[in-house]
Structures are given as structure tokens and as C-alpha cells.
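Let's practice the habit of predicting before peeking. Look at the sequence and jot down your guess about where helices and strands might fall. Then scroll down.
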Amino acid sequence: MDKTPMTAHGAQQLREELTELKQVKRPAVIAAIAEAREHGDLKENAEYHAAREQQGFIEGLIKEIEGKLGNAQIIDVTTLDAGGKVVFGATVDVMDLDTDEEITYQIVGEDEADIKAGKISVTSPLARALIGKSEGDELSFDAPGGTREFEILEVRYE
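Done guessing? Here is the structure:
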């Protein structure tokens, strides 16, 4: 199975979420189950069933995050020397040639993508168009709203 690229920052966020689930949420739901058990008949005990459902959800999340981390190829962007080219993890300032708007994007793994935070998936049409290009290059790509044209203003590895 191929490794999934992930930035060091994205991996750190997943590790922190995993720690929270294992050290805070899992013990809390176990305590809630124990407390609900003390209330007697489990067949009609809504608190017990809700706590068990929550436990299943938490255990599923833990497995999912452990799987993502286990399958991740973690890339520390700050150590890259890509010679000014756009690569996975790079932060790229671009100008939309239609609107003269400057936009900053970081190319990240699929699980880290958050367009509102300027993080685009490495598999997105824009990221695929950017990769391999350098500062000063112009590119066009097919976006959902039609063809867009950008000029790369700066490439950073941060």
C-alpha cells in the first residue's frame, strides 16, 4: 500500500487529537458507562446506551487516526530544498490573473486540506497545476467554475 503524504504539522495535529481521545475522552466515556450501570436495568437505560454509542464512536476515531498516522509519509517542509520549485508542503503565493487577487495556498495531504485555511489537497486540480512550477511561472487549470489562470509570486517552505 502506498504511503500517504502528510506534513509534519498535520501529523502533529493528529497525534494531539489521538492523545486527547485516549487520555481524556476514552476515560470519560468509560466512567459514564460505569455510572449508568449503577442505575440498574440496562435495557431501558438511555444514558448507558448513549455512553456505549459514544464509546464505539471514540474507538472508531482512535483506529482511524492510528491508521492514518501508520500509513503516513511525514514530510518536514522546513527541511526541503526543492530549488524554488512548488512541491508537496510548499506554501505558494499566487496572483489570480483574472481578478489581480493575491492568494496564499499550502499544498498538503488529503486529510489536512482546509480551503478556508488556505490548505489545498495535493490531489486538487490547482495543486497538480502548481507542482513542479517556480516563482514567475504562469499556469492555467480547470476549476469547477471554469479555467483559471495564476502567476506564482513566491514559493516558501515553512
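How did you do? Residues 139 and 150 are 5 Å apart (CA to CA).
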